[in-house]
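Notes from the 1:1 (GR / supervisor)

We went over the backlog. Supervisor wanted to see one worked example end to end before approving the batch request, so GR pasted a single chain during the call. The sequence is below; no edits were made to it. Supervisor asked that the structure be written out right there so they could see what the output format looks like.
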Amino acid sequence: MATAIWNQRRTRDANGFWASGHMPTLIAAFLYFDLAFMVWVLLGPLAPEIAKTLALTPAEKGLMVATPTLAGAVLRIVNGLLVDRIGPKTAGAISQVIVIAGLFGAWMLGVDSFAGTLALGVILGFAGASFAIALPLASRWYPPQHQGKAMGLAGMGNSGTVLAALFAPALAKLFGWNAVLGLACIPLVLVFAAYMAMAKDAPNAPAPKTLGQYLTPLTSADAWSLMGFYAVTFGGFVGLAASLPIYFTDRFGLTTVQAGYCTAACVFAGSLVRPMGGALADAVGGVRTLTGVFAIAALALAGVAMADSVTAAMALFVVAMLALGTGNGAVFQLVPQRFAAEIGVMTGLVGFAGGIGGFYLASSLGIARQVTGSFSGGFLIFAALALVALAALTLVKRGWRARWGAADTVRI
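Structure output shown during the call:
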């Protein structure tokens, strides 16, 4: 019965996005993703204060803010498997409980060593792994011609990074940075309650597969290409979101609160355009969208390496974040077109690659700062990676359009 109703909804209004899916689930996916991302990058805005308390080196600061990204990358594969095995709603509930319990425990016990920050980073990785749950939770309710918009709106939950940048430094100044870990549990519990009430698994879930079948997409060059592209777009976005508070305080001597405001402005730009990137890719094609994304991001990040003022750096970061955020939406317009039957595991695999990209950027900026005294080398290398992605896209796009573009409703 539920399947029949869902199919009727899909066919009743093929061109109407809001009527073609399940809005309460889309909202629940967004809220879950938003608060999960807030705590995933929480160590970034708190890093300057934590570093003072624990006397961390630049490389240690970089590794500290990069650890949640790496843990989230690995756990995204696990969550991708769980989504196809037990369903996205249950997988999301488990992940949220782990994060809430971990933050509450860290607040109660305290974090008083570099090793403790790394352990906390692993717990926060479960929040970052929400990506592999929230997106298929929403995506499975929507037809192919609306995948870009559905994935973009659910994925706009990465705006949670703005909340962390805005509020964490100010709360840390008032109550101490360790107290922020406990305070974060309050909105997480509220969203968990809303999620359990609103989210619903789509009735068209694929049948469970064996472990070997889950990893079948890795035999396809298309999967590796999409993973590589997302390592640049999402990796750039989350790596910058985690690192900018350190950059602004170290490079220009801003206070932690001022650095948080600057970071929030930059991150907001990238978060805002993610659904627009999906919609743009629906309209003109994911390949065309990504072509512009990689070129603009490379130029902006190269410019950041030479920026000599806060104003110039912020302007370039905003441009880079706008491009990278658009690219995030564009990649996930393409993923369901090629891997609709494996969307759960592909979301995990592509998300894993994005997390690896973010870990590399955040950690390399810290290493560059410690070794050379400047962040410039890290930015220049990542700009070069964007150009490599542009070259790779140019090589594969003709084959993609020939093999994927048969359906009239799909733009590649």
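Supervisor's comment: Confidence is low (pLDDT under 50) at residues 1-6, 9-14.
Batch request approved.
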